[in-house]
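User: I've been going back and forth on whether these two constructs are worth ordering. Before I decide, could you fold them both?

Assistant: Sure. I'll take them in the order you sent them. The first construct and its structure tokens:
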Amino acid sequence: MFIDANQRVRRGYRWCREFSRSHYENFPVASLLLPRHLRDPVAAIYTFARIADDVADEGQATASGRLEVLDAMSIALRQTGTGQPPDEPMYYALADTIQRHQLPVDLFENLLSAFRQDVTQSRYANFGELMDYCRRSANPVGRLLLHLEKQTSERNIALSDAVCSALQLINFLQDISRDYEKNSRIYLPLDEMERFKVDENAIANQLNNPAARSLIQFQVERASKLLRSGSPLGTTLPGRLGLEVRAIILGGSRILEKLYYRVNPFSRPRLNRTDRMKITWGALRKGFH
């Protein structure tokens, strides 16, 4: 049966929406808070980033095998950027999103660069190294969202980078044990672990002691300051996009609160229904502009 280009694009977006809904996230992805015309593009962007991230993190492939897949995704991305996507649903949706919104393909390449780094680097000497990773693993997503709505002023980009880097740090803090057990990765600066007298044994054995709690609380406080520094973005962006960003920021803030006060510094907090209702209400209270 002949399927025209428009049908392929529609099927691609439907596939991305279903993929996005099937993956748990503490922060909303293409949620109903977004304006309708952004939900499909955001789902396509999320799907690409999530699949590439899973290549670096999931399964039994060797390091060289993971890098080969990520390199293949880079080639497919360049083809997609020129309007000649591979015959896969995600790339049909992504090609339409990139062309329709004139998105910089380099931002997607930055994501792939970070995921390659996940394969080859598992320790970070200091906070500067960690922030360089955030610059490529998280900040491109926020910038792509700004491009979708033509809101790429220098101030908006700076605020978005702060929010996205903070959210990435939050993900690290809620997945300390999981990252270590699954992939032997530690996203805590080694110099700060040494300062607080927390070694890898503490992470491997989830030692719940004052040193570990102090280290994590220090990380939480810094991530909280970074998130607050970017929070004006939620009231700067117009309409439902601003609403979505406010909800994401409030969600991050709630996770940080749970991280700070959790009894076991290595347990993973999750947002429950009550949390999500409060977050939605908090975002709505600011209204629209």
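The second construct, handled the same way:
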Amino acid sequence: MFVSFTVAKYSGRNILFGFLSMAIFRILFFLKNYGVVFSKLMGSGKNGTFDIEPDLKQWAYMWVWKSEEHYENFEKKSWVMKYIRRFSTEKFTLFLKPLQSHGLWDGKNPFETNEKENFGDNESIVVLTRASIRIHKAADFWRNVPAIAKNFAQHEGFLYSIGVGEMPFFKQATLSVWQNETFMKAFAYRRKEHSEVIQKTRSQQWYSEELFARFRLMGHAGNVPVSITEF
């Protein structure tokens, strides 16, 4: 299994093309699949994690491929990539290998794997958390999440994050990159604010569906954030 996560930024008059890509890419993939087994076209928030304020200049495209060769063929020949290259100001792609995943996304686990590899002590780790928020729990969710978002990027070992979503307010996800698994776990399980929110999601049943996945960062291309390339 091979996963690509692309972030494209649009500016000026081309901002409209970022918005239109959400519909146009669905049509293009309907006409030719290119070996995609799961895909998500998503908008993004402004503060690098779950965010109620959208960033209309930045859009994310995540595709799960049958193989790396399928992605390479897509990169070279597809109208989707030609569209991104033509209208975006800059873009970058992270290439990911799923190692651990539990939960569901639209009724399936797209990153489920039988491999039992562990992360090395100095190996960067990519984490994806996503959730479908119950409509009657949305107010509670958005009252609690900003406290975490403010301190997210200040934690030791943090390299990059982006908050994305299929639907404003109710279908949200965060992809984050960490120097290693130790730093990631310190944030996820030992930071008081974060652990308290995790407990509330369970006790108050905020989500109708959720998924948590960890990936090995296999490589990257394009205008990758400096924080990732310097590590």
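Notes on the second construct follow. The chain has a mean pLDDT of 88. Residues 15-31 form the longest helix (17 residues).
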